Amino acid sequence: MTNSTNVTWHETTIAKEDRRVQNGHGSYVLWFTGLSGSGKSTIANAVSNELFRLGINEYVLDGDNIRHGLNKDLGFSDEDRTENIRRIGEVAKLFVDSGKVVTTAFISPFRSDRDQVRTLFEKGEFIEVFVDCPLEECERRDPKQLYVKARRGEIKDFTGIDSPYEAPERPEIVIKSDQLSVQEAVNQIIQYLRKQDEIQED
Ligand SMILES: Nc1ncnc2c1ncn2[C@@H]1O[C@H](COP(=O)(O)OS(=O)(=O)O)[C@@H](OP(=O)(O)O)[C@H]1O
Ligand SMILES: Nc1ncnc2c1ncn2[C@@H]1O[C@H](COP(=O)(O)OP(=O)(O)O)[C@@H](O)[C@H]1O
């Protein structure tokens, strides 16, 4: 669905590939998905630090932050979550076109929304990272005390409580964050990127 008519797509004169060559590395999105409290932000930021240290040009888009600005008009109904993820997907694509590595940390609870975002990218550019953590453990951590509020009925449509989370079926990476330390999770992701030749050996 689009309301934009009479608009023409402009090819940029500098291609994504030229930017990649200048940066000395590929560009792609590490798309984290998982329940609130599963560790998306913590692990995404730790990966970001490691990539930065390795000289990789990257940026983190985080759920809470984007909802303060670009998506502050959106709530947590199914429709708003779908629109939230659609916009983030488009932003992530711009980052990848600009030659950067972008790490996103959104619950992104609906499989169809994540699959739709995947279609925006070329093969290998969309790396889905499922932060797989049992609801009980997320609820035990409850870093923002949101589960307590959701259980009391003070927050409606809370993911895992009264709003669904659809786990990915074929994610590129699964992080069992209840069984690994943050550093081990980072190592697993870096190892994956090395295998894909996205990070060169030192
Ligand atoms: N109802 C409800 N359900 C889930 N989460 C809620 C809700 N209300 C507020 N929050 C806070 O918003 C963060 C999730 O935002 P996202 O943009 O990642 O959500 S979504 O992808 O559109 O589902 C989420 O952040 P994380 O805990 O980092 O996942 C919460 O802090
Ligand atoms: N192995 C782990 N990986 C990620 N987070 C962990 C891990 N073990 C404990 N935690 C804690 O769990 C909480 C996860 O919160 P957060 O990263 O904000 O999750 P999310 O972004 O998915 O809501 C943090 O307080 C973090 O310190």
UniProtKB/TrEMBL annotation:
Q: SUPFAM superfamilies attached here? A: P-loop containing nucleoside triphosphate hydrolases
Q: In which pathway does it act?
A: Sulfur metabolism; hydrogen sulfide biosynthesis; sulfite from sulfate: step 2/3
The entry's ATP-binding residues are: 34-41
Which keywords has UniProt assigned to this entry? Answer: ATP-binding, Kinase, Nucleotide-binding, Phosphoprotein, Transferase
User: Which PANTHER family does this entry report, sorted A to Z?
Assistant: BIFUNCTIONAL 3'-PHOSPHOADENOSINE 5'-PHOSPHOSULFATE SYNTHASE, PAPS SYNTHETASE, ISOFORM D
Q: Which gene encodes it?
A: cysC
Taxonomic lineage of the native organism:
Bacteria, Bacillati, Bacillota, Bacilli, Bacillales
What catalytic activity does the UniProt entry give for this protein? adenosine 5'-phosphosulfate + ATP = 3'-phosphoadenylyl sulfate + ADP + H(+)
Keyword Kinase part of the UniProt annotation: yes
Regarding protein family, the annotation reads: Belongs to the APS kinase family.
Which enzyme type, at the first EC level? transferase
Occurrences of domain APS kinase (ranges): 27-176
**Physiological role:** Catalyzes the synthesis of activated sulfate.
* UniProt name for this protein: Adenylyl-sulfate kinase
One of the entry's Gene Ontology molecular-function terms is: ATP binding
Q: Which species is the source of this protein?
A: Jeotgalibacillus soli
Can you cite a GO biological process for this protein?
Answer: sulfate assimilation
What does the record give as EC number? 2.7.1.25
Catalytic site:
108 (phosphoserine intermediate)
